[in-house]
What does this fold into?
Amino acid sequence: MKLHRFLVVLAAWAVLGTAYADITGRVVGVLDGDTIDVLVDHKPVRVRLGQVDAPESRAEFGTRAKQALSKAVFAKVVHVKTSGTDRYGRTIGTVLVDGQDINRLMVAQGMAWVYRQYLTDQSLLDVEAKARKGRVGLWADPNPVAPWEWRAQRRGHASSGW
It folds into this structure.
């Protein structure tokens, strides 16, 4: 009985230990300003940039955000520091290209908001504040609509990522 419990615990530990393993691969698709497909062991892994939220494809600035992310990562080898999975089964993480933090880059370029609901790196708030102050990217718009608000409007009710 004790051996059985030990094996169950060991199996669970092994699964959890590999569930959030970092990944490295070539970007084969950019779905929008915060979601990419990374080819790992000949299989695409959908990756959602953590802690940031880019405009939806059909929203104001959505196309430009996707273009900016494509320029930064498409066809390049990326390393993803994973932090979990979301409700859609996507891997969540920080995407690095040659050591450059692409999540941070998207915020600095004014192509994504800091997603406060999921924020763990408080320094991203300073990056966003600098982009806002400089009216960079989407911050050139006097009244940009945050992605979580845009999605809530489409669903017909208010929501907050702040």
In short: Residues 6-18 have pLDDT under 50 and may be disordered.
